[in-house]
Amino acid sequence: MTEKVFKIFVDFDGTISKRDVGEAIFREFGNSSKVNDIIIKLLKDEITAKECWIQLCQSMGQINKSKLIDFIDKMEIDVTFRNFESYCVTNGLELFVLSDGFDLYINRIFEREKFYNLKVYCNRLKINDNILIPEFPYLDSGCTSSANCKRNHIINHSDDSDYTIFIGDGNSDKYTAQYCDYIFAKDDLLKFCESERITYYPYNNFDDVIAKIDQLRSRKRLKKRFQATLKRKELYTIE
Q1: What is the pTM of this model?
Q2: Span 72-105, pLDDT tens digits
Q3: Could you say which of 3.40.50.720, 3.40.50.1000, 3.40.50.300, 1.20.120.680 is the CATH number of the domain covering 6-18+76-124+136-238?
Q4: Dist. CA 22–CA 20, nearest whole Å
Q5: DSSP tag of 205
Q6: Are 135 and 124 in contact (CB under 8 A)?
Q7: Percentage of the chain surpassing pLDDT 70?
Q8: Residues 96/115, Cβ–Cβ less than 8 Å
Q9: What residue segments make up the domains of the chain, in order of their start?
Q10: Helix, strand, coil tally for the chain in percent (to 5)
């Protein structure tokens, strides 16, 4: 009997981290009114995620780097993620962190928490002359809700025979999650799944996710989500 292979993809902001760190940074150091207007445009699909990040960075002006780093260092992660990361390592489950946020804070937080071996794909953020400069190495024009095309990472790191799992909470996850067999959702992603009648598992923390994955792994027969399989096939046809 062939062993079931699971590939797990997890969002960072608001999923691993307690707060959306990227949004928190722009609200803390930028013009609150401008930030709010830009984010609303993104949620209404009036601008792409890339355009959103560029506008947010432009709205900041000059920034005090030391104050920014101090702010990042106060950002907390969900304490149950540590258990989840250990669970994945112990059980040989490949884990990927996919974020539409930035390496500047994600890498720093992971280093602080001593997560040295996580596979992370995200946007990049540089500080030149106290100005924030965003870069998008994984941009795909077909992924407008995320400047880092999470969909491509899922496709590139999983086979059709793998059971794919996505864990997320926000706007940048809505498009991506549909390419996975099992979706763990909360907040905006949960609302989206309900409105679109997409099957999902609600969760509060990563302990909930562990319990459900244990159930999935123990089943003799496991079905892949038909709509996810269909979307993958449609993507292959387009390419």
Answers
A1: 0.94
A2: 999 999 999 999 999 999 999 999 999 999 999 9
A3: 3.40.50.1000
A4: 6
A5: S
A6: yes
A7: 98
A8: no
A9: 6-18+76-124+136-238, 22-73
A10: 45, 20, 35
> Residue 145 corresponds to which amino acid?
S
Question: How big is the chain, counted in residues?
Answer: 239
Compute φ and ψ for 202, nearest 5 degrees. -75, 150
Tokens 């539409």 sit at which residue?
100
Q: What is the pLDDT of residues 117-164, one digit of tens each?
A: 999 999 999 999 999 999 999 999 888 889 999 999 999 999 999 999
Taking Cα atoms as reference points, which of 187, 183, 178, 189 lies closest to residue 228? 178
Q: What is the pLDDT of residues 100-122, one digit of tens each?
A: 999 999 999 999 999 999 999 99
Range list of H helices, the chain = 21-29, 32-43, 49-60, 65-73, 80-90, 103-112, 150-156, 174-177, 187-195, 206-218, 226-238
The type of residue at 214 is D
Residues 29/185, Cβ–Cβ less than 8 Å: no
